[in-house]
Each structure stands twice: as structure tokens, then as C-alpha cells.
Amino acid sequence: MVEQTMFFAGSPVDRSSNERRDPQWVQNALEAEDSCFLPVCNFEFPVSNGEQSFLLWGQSSWLELATGSPEPILLGKFNGRAHFAFDVGELESPLNAFGLSDVGAFYGLRKLAALLSPEEAAIAAHARSILEWHTRYPFCPGCGNRSIQRNGGSSRHCPACQTDHFPRIDPVAIVLVTKDDKCLLGRSGRFGRNLYSALAGFIETGESIEEGARREIKEESGIEVGKVTYVASQPWPFPYSLMIGCFGEALTETIVLDEEELADARWFSKEHVRQALAGDAKDLAVPGKLAIARHLIETWAAG
Fold first, then answer.
1. pTM over cut 0.90
2. Tell me, what's the pLDDT at 172?
3. Residue 233 to residues 6, 157, 238, 273, 296: CA-CA distances in angstroms?
4. Residue 1 above 50 pLDDT?
5. What are phi and psi of 129, to 5 degrees?
6. Separation CA 186–CA 116 (nearest Å)
7. pLDDT at 176 exceeding the cut of 70
8. Which of 53, 175, 201, 274 could form a disulfide with 216 if both were Cys (CB 3.0 to 4.6 A apart)?
């Protein structure tokens, strides 16, 4: 059985993990006439106008238009062509610079989710996370010297202390806690008044997924959790998290709210959740299909 692919996953690009270790192979790909280059401006991507939009790729000559010294990141190969993403820097009016003003616009990933196919959204998510990592960590955390890209941008290398550094991924346990015929949902202060979701938190050093899930639920809601069951995962490129979706079986029911983390948390019956999924509950809204929380809630409600 093949697991359901979450949004921002399922990229059709072959990351060329073996080939990218060869600097000459990467250089040949950069110089190939049929290679594709995706300009990124403030972590926004160029897409075509229309109800079903698509990413707008260009040729290597686009690199010459970027300010500074753009360092293209190899995303991999697709349909026999190498695909790169690059930061345009402080380029003014990138649409005009790349000749795209009449055919498209630059949008962030949340906006793109409603415009692109899931496959292209996954490509953009990959590009955003890796570009932001390079932007945030240009220096070696060991000795403080500037590091350089290696392996097509899939890692960085410090020439001073000879240390290799790899992209950061932040694991997050997101857990739908259930007990009998009800589930626990929480509302962040950033959410709308009636928007509730599964509870989530970062897994800390030295924790397993199950331990992190239990700790976060206990800290945020006071609920003790026993069995934790993995369901699915989702790359979440804001900037580079991995959402690890789980079900958790509650051992207690009394909620003790951490008001610094949540504005509210409640138990909701399965029937109430089903009404919310259908858009018929005036006092409860759940996350959209973009989020793995929606998949957890739908899976539980369908049981």
C-alpha cells in the first residue's frame, strides 16, 4: 500500500544524489543549453497567469540578471533536464527584468498552493527551504569563517576547518489526541476565533517522536497521552520543518491550558467534527487541505 502524499511532498524531480557529488557533472549541468533555472525573489516564485498556473523557468542567461553573485541550487533532473533555483538578490522589478510582466507574477508558497499542481508546489517547497537555509547559514558554526556550497548546493563546506554542513530540518510532532468518540483540538492566538487544529510542537534533542508528542501535549493541554501511532509526514517549508503526523490515545480528560501556547483547547465529538468538515458547524472550523492536520482530522472522522 502506497501512503497518501501530503501537499508539498511528491516532487517529480530526481535529486541526482549521486551525480551532484561530481563538481564537473554539476558544472556541465549549469552550462547545458536545456537546463532550467527558477528565479526566486524574497522567497517568492514566478508563476503564469491563469486558473491553473505553472512555474516559469528560464535559461542560464537569467543568472546574469541577478544582483550580486547568484549561486544556483541544483534541485535535480526532470524529463532529462537539470533544474536549478537561484536567488535574484536585490533586483528591482524582477518581472520586467526577466520579461515576465505580461505573463505572470511572483507569489509566496501559501498563495501558490491554490494555483499550482501538487507536483510543482512540491518543487517550489524544496527550492524555498534549501534557499532559505543557505541564506541563514552562510558561515561555519564551528569556526565562524564563510562556508561555500558543495554538491550542487545540497550542503556547505568550510574551507578553513574542513567541516561539511547539511541543510537543517526541524521535526515537529503534530498529534490528533482522541478518547472514545471525541478528539482534542486547540486554537492558537494567531488563528481565527473558531479555527481549531491538532496540537503540535518541535521534537527536542534526545527525544523520540513518541516522547516529543507526549511532552508537547502534556505541556500545552495538560492531557496525558499513552499510545502514539504514526500516520504520515509532510515537509512544511516555513522555513524547513518536517511535520510528523500521529494519533495519540488520551489517558486523561481534564484540560489544563498553557495560555502562552494556546488561546483555547477543547474536546469535540466526532459528529461535531464531521459537521465542521462539511462546513456546517458555526462554532468550529478546521484547517484547509494544505495542512497535514486536515488529513489527520479527516482520517479520524471517517472511522
1. yes
2. 98
3. 7, 29, 15, 22, 10
4. no
5. -65, -45
6. 30
7. yes
8. 201
Cell of 128: 524555498
DSSP calls for 65-128: GSSS----EEEEEETTEEEEEEE-TT-SSHHHHTT-TTTEEEE-HHHHTTTS-HHHHHHHHHHH
Residue 236: closest CA among 264, 206, 202:
202
Q: How far apart are CA 52 and CA 42, in angstroms?
A: 23
As given in the structure block, the three cell numbers for residue 205 are: 534533542
- Three-state secondary structure call for residue 35: coil
Q: What is the pLDDT of residues 203-262, one digit of tens each?
A: 999 999 999 999 999 999 999 999 999 999 999 999 999 999 999 999 999 999 999 999
Q: In angstroms, rounded to a whole number, what is the distance separating the alpha carbons of residues 57 and 181?
A: 49
Residue whose C-alpha is closest to residue 243's, from 303, 192, 188, 176: 176
Buried b / exposed e over 39-50, threshold 16 CB at 10 Å, is bbbebbbbbeee
Contact 2, 25 (CB under 8 A): no
Q: Which is higher by pLDDT, 51 or 24?
A: 24
